[in-house]
Amino acid sequence: MSRSNLKVLPGLLALICAHSLCVPFAHAAPLLSPADSILAIDLDAFRSNSRHPLTENPPTLLDNATGTKYLNFAGANSGFIVTPSASSVVQSFRLSTANDNEQRDPATYSLYGTNSPILSKDGSLGDSEPWTLISSGALALPSGVGSRQVAGPIVAFANATPYSSYRMVFPTVKNVPASTIMQISEAQLFSDAAGTAPILAVGNPILAIDVDQLAGSESPASGNENVNRLIDGASNTKYLNFGRRNAGFIVTPTLGPKSIVTSFVMTTANDAADRDPASYALYGTNAPITSANHSTGSAEAWTLISSGPLSLPTTRGTLASPVTFANSTAYSSYRMVFPELRNAPVVDSFQLAEVQFDGVAVPEPATWLLALAGATGLGLIRYRRK
Fold first, then answer.
1. For residue 84, is the peptide bond before it cis, meaning its omega torsion is within 30 degrees of 0?
2. Which of 100, 327, 80 is nearest to 207 (CA)?
3. CA distance 345 to 244
4. Among the four 8, 291, 326, 341, which has the fewest Cβ within 10 Å?
5. How far apart are CA 239 and CA 107, in angstroms?
């Protein structure tokens, strides 16, 4: 080969690599910018409003201490799912009042049973299982002076069907709308109508729920915490989504028609470390994006690129360590969702200040083909002149 041909080889190799034929040798660079199209999504079409303080959680219902309590900020239609150590036939129950604010006491109840495995999560709608209504009606918890932290009356009903798990929902509280909170200190189910044969014990699996269905994806109306803030280059702004678990975004980089993402970095938001994502799932697609903002983001065919746990810093406004993964496929758009948060049951939202994808932008095929043809022609001309 002549020296003239050797001179064009570096250019040819660069052009070929630009088309990702030798992507592993290309230098990864930031792919996202404020000009990119980005949508807020939540894979859950609906979400629960259930949330509780860290120390006022459902297990306190089973600790045999009226000095503790389970509090749910969802108020009406909140409750719990509990799984006794063995299948049982429930025929009565009793609740105990909490330490303060009588207006938060449940005023009505609906008790359900199931023999299916419990798939619902703490803080969910509690509807991942088929439930059968056992009993419902009014409650008459103690009222007035001396009514705090005491057991209410036994509530008995007819039932002959055994169930492995139970769901208790409180459709109303004593003072609506003055109270938007529900609370009780103790709960016990009995296998007899007299309330002498308790079924529940310390350590039984128990979850907080709220059966009210809210829109899955929702951000503050002001726009100061919308999804565009996620790629605005400013660590003092943030993207917040009330969808909590499974919230995320769809982004279409403008740097090239396609790109190959091989890593990403995130910046924590300004407050509430409990809202930080604790896991991720990154998908890619080459289909046109037809999903709407605040939809489930499922209108396109998506391919999973990478998923796993996240360990973001607890310090605020802090850049986390890069997350890297193997990928050699180019996509035009990406969907990232966050299946778990650092402490989902006690927060009302998911949040993140910034995200950046790193990888290689892939230009239009016509661009590199024309350039390659031109460079090849130049090499041939030089060869003929030699």
1. no
2. 80
3. 9
4. 326
5. 38
Within 13 Å, how many C-alpha atoms sit on residue 92's CB side? Answer: 15
Distance separating alpha carbons of residues 277 and 349, to the nearest angstrom: 10
SS (H, E, C) 35-88: CCEEEEEECCCEECCCCCCCCCCHHHHHCCCCCCCEEECCCCCEEEEECCCCCE
- Number of residues that make up the chain: 386
Calculate Rg over the CA atoms of the chain: 28
- The Cα 40–Cα 26 span in angstroms is 31
The highest-level CATH class for domain 58-212 is mainly beta
Helices 365-385 & 3-18 angle (0-180, nearest 10): 180
CATH T-level topology, domain 26-47+215-365:
Jelly Rolls (2.60.120)
> Which DSSP state fits 216?
S
pLDDT at 25: 45
56: tokens are: 């006022």
357 within 8 A of 252, measured Cβ to Cβ: no
- 177 contact partners, CB below 8 Å, separation of at least 6: none
* Amino acid type, 330: A
Comparing CA positions, the residue from 112, 71, 348, 111 lying closest to residue 214 is: 348
**26-47+215-365 with 58-212: one CATH topology?**
yes
Is residue 23 within 8 A of residue 260, CB to CB? The reply is yes
Express each pLDDT in 243-254 by its tens digit: 999 999 999 999
Domain boundaries, the chain: 26-47+215-365, 58-212
CA angle (57 as vertex; 122, 312 as ends), nearest 5: 65
Convert the pLDDT of each residue in 70-106 to its tens digit. Answer: 999 999 999 999 999 999 999 999 999 999 999 999 9
Q: pTM for the whole thing? A: 0.75
